[in-house]
Automatic annotation (TrEMBL), chain A:
It holds the Pfam family FtsX. Belongs to the ABC-4 integral membrane protein family. FtsX subfamily. The keyword Cell cycle applies. This is Cell division protein FtsX. GO terms for biological process: cell division.
From TrEMBL, chain B:
Pfam families: ABC_tran (PF00005). Homodimer. Forms a membrane-associated complex with FtsX. InterPro entries: AAA+_ATPase, ABC_transporter-like_ATP-bd, ABC_transporter-like_CS, ABC_transpr_LolD-like, Cell_div_FtsE, P-loop_NTPase. GO terms for biological process: amino acid transport; cell division. It is a peripheral membrane protein. Residues 2-217 form the ABC transporter domain. One of its GO terms (molecular function) is ATP binding. Belongs to the ABC transporter superfamily. Keywords: Amino-acid transport, ATP-binding, Cell cycle, Cell division, Cell membrane, Membrane, Nucleotide-binding, Translocase, Transport. This is Cell division ATP-binding protein FtsE.
C-alpha cells in the first residue's frame, strides 16, 4: 500500500516538474484547454443567468377570456360555470363590460370620444388565475375554452414568458452541443499532446521497459499529466468566464437599472463548476489513455 | 539459472543470427561470451533478458520459459537481471545520480533508502563525486561505469554485460573486470561478452565462443 502510494506520489511530482520545466508551452496548453472550456461554460453561464432573471418575474400565470360583444347574461353564466370547473384554472373574475367601459373612461380621459361611440365596444371578460403547473399546457386550455360559442378570444398573458422559457431551453441545448463538441476536441488535443510527450521521452520509456518497468509504471506519469493539465486548464477556463462575466456586468446592471431592476451576472454554481472540472479531467484522462495505449506498444519490447 | 535448448533466432529480414544453441549457466557462475563482430553475442544476451524471443527452442531463466512468458510477467523477470547495454542507453536528460535511481524508482523503493543505494553503487564504480553532473560530461570509460552502477544498484541475481570493456584501454578494462569479479564473489551470475579474448584468458573461466551464430571450441 505504502509502496503503491509512493509510486503515485512519484508520478505526481514528475508531472508537476514537467509542467514547470516548460512554463511557456504549459501555459499555452492550459490556455488552449481553458478556451475550449470557457466557450460552453460561458454560454451556459449566460443561459442560467437569463433563467435566474426569468425566475424573478411573477410565476403566477394569468390569462384573459373575452366574450363576443353580443353575449347575453345566459352566456356569461354558462362561461362562468365552465371556467370554475376547468382543472387548470384556480380562479376567474368576471369583468362586466359596463364596468370596463367606466374604468376606461376614468383612466384614459377619453370619455368624450367613448361617449360618442354610442354602443359599448367592450366585451364582457374574465380574468383568470391559472393553477401552478397549468402553464405547461396552455395550448390545450386555449382550445378547450374556444370550443364555447360565446368565447371570442383567449389571451395568455404568459405567452412571452413561455417564449423566454423556450429561448432558455434552446440556449441550454446549444451550450450542451458546444460542450460535447469541445469535449471531443479536448480529448483529441490531449491525445495529441500526450503523443508528442511520448515521442520526446521515447528513450526514457525504452530504457525503463528494458530494466523492468511495468506498463502501468510507464503509463502513470502520462495519465497524471493529462489529468492535472486538464484540471488546471479547466480552472483557466473558469477564470476566463469569470473575467468575461465581470466585463459584461457593468453594461448589464446599467441596463437593468433602466428597468428599475438590479441584476448581476454570476458564475455557475459550485456543483456545476465541480462537474465541469471533473468532466474535463476525465476527458483528458480518456484522451491520454487512448494515446498511451496506441503509442507505448510501439516502443521497446 | 540460464538454460538454452536448441535455440535459434531468425530476424524478421530472414537472417539467422543464432543457430540451434544449447547450453546451461549455473547460479553464481561467471561466463564469458566471445566471438567476432556480428557473431550473435548481443542477440544471445537479448534472448536471456527477454528483449527478443527465440524463433525456435526454449530459453529458461530463473525457472521461467521466456518463449511463453506473458507480457505482464516480463518486467518482474527483468528486475532480477542487471543489464549493461553495448550502446550504454544512458539518459542525458538527467543527472548521473538520477540515471542510477531509475531502476529503484521503477520498483518503487523508499526514496531515502534508494538514494543511499544509488550512492553506494556510484561509490563502487568510482563516480561518487560526479553524481550531480549530466552524464554527457563523463568520459567514455566513466559512462561505461555509470552503466555498471545502474545495472547493479537494485542487486540483481543475474548480470548481463554486453561488451563492457568495448572501447576502453587495457588499464580501464582491467579495472572493470575487477568490479565484475567482486560482484561474482557475492554470488551474482554473470555473463560478459567481448570480441577480444585477451582479457578473458587471465580469469580461467568458462568461455562460450560464438562463430556466425554457432558455438565453436
Ligand atoms: N534487429 C535486427 N534485425 C536484423 N538483423 C539483426 C538485428 N540485430 C542483429 N542482427 C544481425 O544479427 C547478427 C548478430 O548481431 P549481434 O548484434 O548479435 O552481433 P554481435 O556479436 O553482438 O556483434 P558486435 O560484436 O558487433 O556487437 C548480425 O549479423 C546483425 O546484422
Ligand atoms: Mg553486440
Amino acid at each position: 500500500m505504502i509502496h503503491w502510494l509512493r509510486l503515485h506520489r512519484l508520478a505526481l511530482l514528475a508531472t508537476l516538474r514537467l509542467i514547470l520545466a516548460h512554463p511557456l508551452a504549459s501555459l499555452f496548453n492550459l490556455l488552449v484547454i481553458g478556451i475550449a472550456v470557457a466557450l460552453p461554460l460561458g454560454l451556459y453561464a449566460l443561459v442560467s443567468n437569463l433563467q435566474g432573471l426569468a425566475g424573478q418575474l411573477p410565476t403566477e400565470t394569468q390569462a384573459s377570456v373575452f366574450l363576443h360583444t353580443n353575449a347575453g347574461p345566459a352566456d356569461i353564466g354558462r362561461v362562468q360555470t365552465l371556467l370554475s370547473q376547468d382543472p387548470a384554472i384556480a380562479s376567474a373574475r368576471h369583468i362586466n363590460k359596463h364596468q370596463a367601459l367606466k374604468d376606461l373612461e376614468q383612466t384614459s380621459g377619453m370619455a368624450d370620444l367613448l361617449a360618442g361611440l354610442g354602443d359599448n365596444p367592450l366585451p364582457d371578460s374574465f380574468e383568470l388565475t391559472l393553477k401552478d403547473g397549468a402553464s405547461t399546457d396552455l395550448a390545450a386550455l386555449q382550445t378547450r375554452l374556444k370550443a364555447d360559442a360565446a368565447i371570442e378570444y383567449v389571451q395568455l398573458d404568459s405567452e412571452w414568458a413561455q417564449r423566454l422559457a423556450s429561448i432558455i431551453r434552446l440556449g441550454r441545448e446549444a451550450a450542451l452541443t458546444v460542450a460535447a463538441l469541445f469535449g471531443a476536441a479536448l480529448m483529441l488535443i490531449t491525445a495529441n499532446l500526450i503523443r508528442m510527450q511520448i515521442l520526446t521521452r521515447r528513450e526514457e520509456i525504452e530504457v525503463s521497459k528494458l530494466i523492468g518497468a511495468t506498463d502501468s509504471f510507464i503509463r502513470r506519469p502520462f495519465l497524471y499529466f493529462a489529468a492535472v493539465q486538464g484540471l488546471l486548464g479547466a480552472l483557466v477556463g473558469i477564470a476566463l468566464v469569470g473575467l468575461g462575466l465581470n466585463r459584461l456586468n457593468g453594461p448589464v446592471s446599467q441596463l437593468a437599472s433602466l428597468y428599475g431592476q438590479s441584476f448581476q451576472l454570476h458564475l455557475p454554481s459550485p456543483p456545476v463548476l465541480g462537474l465541469s472540472l471533473s468532466t474535463v479531467a476525465l476527458l483528458s484522462l480518456f484522451g491520454a489513455t487512448l494515446s498511451v495505449g496506441k503509442h507505448l506498444r510501439s516502443i521497446g519490447n | 539459472m540460464i538454460q538454452f535448448n536448441q535455440v535459434s533466432k531468425r530476424y524478421p529480414g530472414g537472417f539467422e543470427a543464432l543457430k540451434n544453441l544449447s547450453f546451461q549457466i549455473d547460479a553464481g557462475e561467471l561466463v564469458f561470451l566471445a566471438g567476432h563482430s556480428g557473431a550473435g553475442k548481443s542477440t544471445l544476451l537479448k534472448l536471456i533478458a527477454g528483449i527478443d524471443r527465440p524463433t525456435a527452442g526454449s530459453v529458461v531463466v530463473n525457472g521461467q520459459n521466456l518463449a511463453s512468458i506473458s507480457r505482464g510477467a516480463l518486467p518482474f523477470l527483468r528486475r532480477h537481471i542487471g543489464l549493461i547495454f553495448q550502446d550504454h542507453k544512458i539518459l542525458f536528460d538527467r543527472t548521473v545520480f538520477d540515471n542510477v535511481m531509475l531502476p529503484l524508482d521503477i520498483v518503487g523503493y523508499d526514496r531515502r533508502e534508494a538514494a543511499r543505494r544509488a550512492r553506494a553503487a556510484l561509490d563502487k564504480v568510482g563516480l561518487l563525486g560526479r553524481e550531480k553532473l549530466n552524464p554527457i560530461s563523463l568520459s567514455g570509460g566513466e559512462q561505461q561505469r555509470l552503466c555498471i552502477a545502474r545495472a547493479v544498484v537494485h542487486r540483481p541475481s543475474i548480470l548481463l554485460a554486453d561488451e563492457p570493456t568495448g572501447n576502453l584501454d587495457r588499464a580501464y578494462a582491467l579495472d572493470i573486470m575487477e568490479l565484475f569479479k567482486s560482484f561474482h564473489q557475492v554470488g551474482v551470475t554473470i555473463v560478459i561478452s567481448a570480441h577480444d579474448e585477451s582479457l578473458m584468458a587471465d580469469y580461467g573461466r568458462r568461455i562460450l565462443r560464438l562463430n556466425k551464430g554457432q558455438f565453436t571450441q
